Each structure stands twice: as C-alpha cells, then as structure tokens.
Amino acid sequence: MVFNRPGIASMSLGRPWLHDLPGKLMQAAAHGFEGIELFFDDLDCYAQRTFNGDHLAASHQVRRLCERLKMTIICLQPFSMYEGLLDRAESDRLVTEKLPRWFTLAQALGTDMIQVPSNFLGPDPKTGTPRTTGDRNIIVKDLQRIADIGAKSGFRFVYEALCWGDHVDTWEASWEVVRDVDRANFGLCLDSFNIAGRVYADPAAPSGKTPNAAADLAASLDRLRTAKIDPAKIFYVQLVDGERLDAPLDEKHPFHVAGQPVRMSWSRNARLFPFEESRGGYLPILDVARVFFDDLGFRGWVSLELFSRTLADTDPFVPADHARRGMDSYNKMGSILNWEGQTETPTPLLGEPSSPVQHRL
Length: 361
Description:
This is Xylose isomerase-like TIM barrel domain-containing protein. The chain is of the alpha/beta class. It has helices at 21-30, 40-50, 55-68, 88-109, 136-151, 171-181, 192-199, 213-225, 262-270, 285-295, 318-337, and strands spanning 5-9, 35-39, 72-77, 113-117, 156-160, 186-191, 234-238, 241-242, 271-272, 301-304.
C-alpha cells in the first residue's frame, strides 16, 4: 500500500545565503521529514561557499548527507522560464546547454525528477513586448521535447501551474498541458496555494479575495473532482496556505515590486503552512486537500513549499522553527483526513526541537 510521505522544500527552511543547506537538511530530518524538494539556489549557494563553485561536487555531498539522514531528494527545481518562449534560440539553448547539466546534477543527487513551473517570464521590461506565447501547440511541443530527451536517461518532469503564470495559471490549464504532452515521464504537481491563490485570493483587493471567491473555488474543485485525472499522473502535491494582508498589495505596500505580478509578490512574502490561521492564514486549504486525497485518491509525496519574509531572518533558529511548524501542519492534516501510516514527529535526531543546527560538511 502506498502511504503519504512528508516532504518540504529546501527554500522553505531559510534563505540560502543565511542558512546553510546541510543545516537545513539536518533540521528537516530531525523533525520527521522524509523528502526534500531541492532548490537550485540552495545547491548553488552551497557549491559557491564550500566547493569553489563546483555544483557536481556539492551534489555528491548533498546526496551523501541525505542518505545518512535517510531522506529522499524528491526533485531538483525549478527548471523555469522554458516553455512557450518566442525566442526560439533561447529555447534551444536551454535544451542543449542547461538541461544536460541538470541531468548530471540530478543523477549525482540521486533523484530522477525535475520540476518545471509554468512560464512567468512576462513582457520585456523595456518595450512591453511579449516574450512568451499562449499557443498550446508550442507549449506542448516544447515540453514533449524535454520529456523525450529525459526518457532516454530515465528522468521524469513534473509540471506546476503558478497562479501568476503568463498563460498557464490554473490547475485546469496545467492538466490540459500534461494530458496533451502525453508522456509517461511527464506528470502534474497540484499545489493548494496556486489553486486557491488564483480563483479565491486577490491580494490586491481590500478583502484579500476575488469577488466570487467561495463560489469560484467550489466550482474549480468540482471540476477537479470530475476531471478523471489518473492519480499516477500526479507526481506529488504541495500543501500551503497564504496570509491575508492588512492592506491591499498595491504600489504603496512594502511587498510591491514594480513589474512583478501581484500574486507573485504576495507568494514570495506571505505563504503559510496549513492551519496557521493565527498567523493570518485564510485560504480554504482543507477543502482543496480533501479533493486531492479523498476524491482523487492521491497517495505519495506531500510537500510543504513555503516562501515567506520570515525566511530572511538571520536568527539561526529559523530552519528548526520552520521545520517544526511544517511538521505540525502535516501531522494535523493527516489526523483530520485519517491518513494511514501518518508520520508522527519523532524525537529530534539533533538536539532539542527548536535548537539550530549549523554544521558544515
């Protein structure tokens, strides 16, 4: 029987330049996480600081550490700004130059999966000219190209719709892409934040919600229930909430970044773990989760991918605190949904539950 297993994104435990990757991995393991979504920024920072920029050496060391901690590297991510580029020369460069390097690193890390977020390159900041196309045929062909190349070496790709994506910004659009790519090694990541963040939340509105938030999300979830998605095509899911802001995220708001989509600015600063209503969480994450697990029947990696301004705190306790919060959230979700094989927070392997671990290997 396949059970749910707790994972967390490496970036959800602290900023790479403030909190070292080995320390974050140790805290994740100490608090009961079994898997890590490894962000390239974390790997890059570790390589620059410890291996003179040698990403391959850093990857081998990260794998050794994860093996010692009995943790799985779920995927390497994000292979971003790829599909649907109008600059076809850049598209070719990403396939012929960047992708082979990522295959090498993923193999060294011991993972067979690379995550691809929907393209959010946006228009040229100087001219306003679009840099991506919404032509579904081009998007699908681009993704088929990397899937076919990856299949030759046993690699999988997992595609996720970002709620600020240029053209793919809903679960429906991402599923249509995955369905049309039609490759066994190309699957879907469903993310509660990006689903609810697109149709329920509007951080630019005083209420923090879209005009018909509850009805629109309910309709979206009804469509998800009846979409006949094979659970095997869902490679993993992410459970994350978002913070209701005190004021609309406009040009006066401290989170505002000129030229950046509002939902992206909100996401980068104000995600929360599920059930953190005391911190301002307000998205109906439990409703989304019930569809994932009860209706679709998903079982597998459940990752907590949190971005937040709190990760930039220089306090060395940040990784331990976020690992604890994440596991508390995961355990509560499992208890409510009656997951079999629910993981309970173990006695920490390294010090007390909230003690920082900043070892370098």
